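Supplementary notes for students who missed Thursday's class. We covered one full example, reproduced here. Read the sequence, then the structure, then the short commentary at the end.
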Amino acid sequence: MQLQIDVDNVKSNLFLELLNIFKKDEMITNYKIIDTQEDVDSEILEDLQMIGKSIKDAKNGLGSQTSKMVSIQDI
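Structure (token representation):
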């Protein structure tokens, strides 16, 4: 699945450090920095199409459940 975030240039170093921590702790498998000019519409559509299958798989017990929770709040 893909998450696209627009990060302010001033805060980008801090955000990249956070991504590295997530990768080190195996919370994410990989990430890539993309140019905003790059056409990513097809990747986004593919990810959206996978959401239904992911929810169905989770309901059928596929994957692994952990005690970790991520809460994102509008600040």
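Commentary. Residues 45 and 71 are 24 Å apart (CA to CA). The radius of gyration is 15 Å. If anything here is unclear, bring it to office hours.
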